[in-house]
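Hey everyone, long-time lurker, first post.

I ran two proteins through the pipeline my lab uses and got sequence/structure pairs for each. Pasting them in order. The first:
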Amino acid sequence: TTIGDSAFSICKRLTTVTIGNSVTTIGEDVFSCCTSLTAVTIPDSVTMIGNSAFEYCLSLTTINVNEGSAKKIL
């Protein structure tokens, strides 16, 4: 249910991510420095996103979240 801290940090070939519905927590720095990451889809099951989870994702242009998710995360 948790993607641990720094799990995919510095994965330079990672381009898109779809988080599974069973995930509730995205840890700190999980996708940091994934410089090719362009799109992320976050389901409404996610209630916590850690600090700097997407830091230095310089190509990230799309983050898809359900309306209910955005309210919980913010």
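...and the second, right after it:
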Amino acid sequence: VPLTWDERALLRTLKIPGLRSVDELEEPTLRGDIRRAIEIGVPLAHPVATARWVDLRPGRAPAAVPRMFVGASAARWVEGCERATLIVITIGEPLMTQVAALADDEVTDAYHLDAVGSVLVESAADAVDRDVGNAIRRAGYEPTARRSPGYGDWPLSVQPLILDWCGASRIGVRCTDEHILVPAKSITAVIGWRPRRRATT
């Protein structure tokens, strides 16, 4: 996945709204701390993803589908979709390993670096979202927005099913017994394929 960077997104994540660049921060110490976190974190991120579509049509859906889309909100999200693409994205272990190394003695630096990781994985997810959406449109469908387990009543307990379906071990992603993704800066998501509406005359 291409590595892209958005300083405005980082500032929003750090709850510093209204600025476009770290250089606009008036406090030199804070400006230097955040700039250092960017310089350390970006080279440590190696965004990769794996995705696989699943047929949702009656009689064609695999046995795992009813267990993947449990909960009313998840069912509504893919209602009317003929297919769905399940996605796993991660930036890998190194950045969070560095966060852990800083956590005991350099809490502020760890906090800023963790925020950099959050922005990087969301940026990677947005890039994959665009690619998957374009592929869905080329196939003659319209994509839904992306949605992840934990949103609404779609439980985190579906994480192992998504990881298995997508072959997430190939990119080094697993989950704990509590269904927390490892590496921490990883995302699972679904994008539905809705039939394109035909123009009426």
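Reply from user beta_strand_b:
Welcome! Quick read of the second one: The chain has a mean pLDDT of 92. Residues 130 and 137 are 11 Å apart (CA to CA).
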